[in-house]
Amino acid sequence: MKKYLFFILCFFFFSYGFAQKSRSEFIDEAQSYISKKDIIKAIDCYSQLINLFPKDSTAYLDLALLKQQVHDYKGAIQDFTIGGKINPKEPDYFFLRGMLYQKLGKYKKAIADFNITMKKEVNADAYRFRGQIKELKKDFKGAMNDYNKAEKINKYSEIYRDRGALKLKLNQTNAALIDLNMAIQIDSLDEHSYFVRSKIYKKLQNKFNCKKDIDKAIELNKEQANYYLLRAKLEFDCGLNSKACSDYLLYKKYGGKQKFNFNCK
Description:
With 265 residues, the chain is an all-alpha fold. The chain has 15 helices and no strands. It has helices spanning 2-19, 23-35, 39-52, 57-69, 73-86, 92-103, 107-120, 124-136, 140-153, 157-169, 173-186, 191-203, 207-220, 225-237, 241-253. It starts with a helix and ends in a 12-residue tail after the last helix.
């Protein structure tokens, strides 16, 4: 009897051992599904991985990012939170959760996560995103301070663009233009920077450069409604009513909802 029991136990042991996948096999399988854009199956792979390796904080991070892609924001926040508890020294869990909270309009929680991130590492984006929230809350002084801190850490285009847009809002037009010139110098393919700079030129009554920048923004993204609206207004001001009407139709085609009277027939 003992002899048979021994063989039965060996059978189950070796069967389990050969059936269980390794961590790398789960990840390779998930990456294969991701390459095929089958995010649901990739999520299933990471879920199985976590069941076998419940202390794998990196798996929780990857799983949270995948859940964001399928708009499972509650699940993503839960996974960021668990990963952060397993590995509290890693700032990415808090930074990425903060970005998600910001996207969901939960600004108080987003700021709390960005503050945690800043305590763990020097992170220009944490300052920049916190600045965006402060600007939204009309704390313009606080927002400017955050943009300035971000710029000292990392001089990249989005920081200059965001700070320049705020300066435009505060009627610091020439200073805004300097920031947008810098943003475009760093990244000449950022449509948003051309759009913001076109609004600066419009305020400076420089119609030629305004038109030039809005044309460039549209060249880079032909499906952004607001670009067509700004160009339509500029064309209308110049007496180019038919062109203004054509752009206004494109504005509505790409989701624009505001109504304007361009004397279109």
